[in-house]
Structure formats: C-alpha cells, structure tokens
C-alpha cells in the first residue's frame, strides 16, 4: 500500500507543514495529477482544499506537470522543474516522473487552495517549519 510524505504550504502565512500519510488517506492522492484539487481531510485539514503542485520519487526525480502519466520519461529540457541551465540556449536530457501520483512517488507538494473555518496551526497542533 502507498505511503507519502505530504508537504502542505499555506500561501497566506508562508508556513509549510509536513505530514506522513498512508492507507486510506494515501489512496485519496493516487491517480491524481498535478494541478488537481484534493480534500484536505487526507492530511488532517478538515474543510480545506489542497492543490497538488509537485513532488518527487524515492530517487529524488521531480514530477513535471507537462509529462503525462505516472512513469519515468527522459525529456529534453531547456529549463524549469528538474533542470536549471547555466547559459542561454543550453538543453539537457533529464529523467523526470510524470504528473500522475503513483506508488513510486515518495513526496507530494501541495498548497492550500481553499481555507476552512479553523486555523491551520490549530489543526496541525504546531507552528510551521519556517523557523529553521
């Protein structure tokens, strides 16, 4: 069964929160693609809606929204997620993971799209990770 580490960002405060999800909660993310909305109850945010923004697999390969499916692909990149060119016109073939969440994904990045009635810190019971 799948298990993920979900990193939730709150755009209003700039704080981030990390939660490990498995079992039924992890199944809510399976088959979803980057840019889609997920119910926040999967990470303990009842009444919230999360938007999937990115992620990576266990080897650290990033997910790209412009690559269909859950599989690995070798794509020629000129920049963006997975490759930062050092000079103009530089391209590189990079292995990235598709935009669909599968069991191979280890971390999912999400941001709060719609806020609920309760405060995020109260629901998580802690402050954000931004005080490092």
Automatic annotation (TrEMBL):
The keyword Nucleus does not apply. SMART domains: Ribosomal_S6e. The keyword Ribosomal protein applies. GO terms for biological process: translation. Keywords: Ribonucleoprotein, Ribosomal protein. InterPro entries: Ribosomal_eS6, Ribosomal_eS6_arc, Ribosomal_eS6_CS. One of its GO terms (cellular component) is ribosome. Belongs to the eukaryotic ribosomal protein eS6 family. HAMAP family: Ribosomal_eS6 (MF_00512). This is Small ribosomal subunit protein eS6. The lineage of its organism: Archaea, Methanobacteriati, Methanobacteriota, Stenosarchaea group, Halobacteria. The gene is rps6e.
